[in-house]
Amino acid sequence: DNRENGDEGLLRPNAVESWAHEEKKIREDEEDAKDIIPVKIDGLQRRYSLDVEYGGTMLDVERDEDSWMNAVIVTGLSEEEKEKLDSSEENYETEALDMDNVEPYLKEHNEELEKAFEEGEVQIYIGDHKVSNRPRNQTYHDRIHRGMEFIGEIYSEELAEQMWQDFKQTTYETPIAGVQREEPENSGRIE
Questions:
Q1: For the chain, how far is it from start to end, CA to CA, in angstroms?
Q2: Structure confidence at residue 178 (pLDDT)
Q3: Are the C-beta atoms of 148 and 71 separated by less than 8 Å?
Q4: How far apart are CA 163 and CA 104, in angstroms?
Q5: Contact 57, 134 (CB under 8 A)
Q6: Which of 61, 118, 144, 149 is deepest in the core (most CB within 10 A)?
Q7: Is the pLDDT of residue 45 over 80?
Q8: pLDDT, tens digit (0-9, with 9 covering 90-100), for 163-184
Q9: Whole-number Å distance between alpha carbons of 86 and 125
Q10: Which residues of 157-182 are buried (b: 16+ CB within 10 A; e: fewer)?
Q11: Cα separation of 8 and 29, whole Å?
């Protein structure tokens, strides 16, 4: 699958449909809408280091006290939704996040974030330290970019762009000699 950002069919139809349904619930402030909270998390590093059989690498997260990464915390998942998510992330373990290490991009989310931590454990999927000499899977990378654009549809294009820039600056990717990328490389971080 070599689809790029902007190509029709980049995202699976059921993902687009689910997002549109959830976005509508959020816009209409429905009671059962999920909270989607863009955050920065200290002490973690995101890396393109998980080799996949269909080409390249996908993202992995590991502990690194000197790093930070951005993410989205989603609250309000049903048990069935959690089980589906867990089954799709079988290459990872879950670990609890410490609220002291999480900061929302938007101050308006402070209350929702505190509530999420009060109501139970906020978890992240995290892997073992891996090293790969393979480049990122570009279709997967472009799907992540498109996902951040969805954040812009809920909050603002400026937030989506800031998250994308932060993602590129804080995500480690193995530099591949002789391969020219759309984004220039700097010390292994995507820019």
A1: 24
A2: 47
A3: no
A4: 11
A5: yes
A6: 61
A7: yes
A8: 999 999 999 887 655 444 444 3
A9: 9
A10: eebbebbbebbbebbbbbeeeeeeee
A11: 30
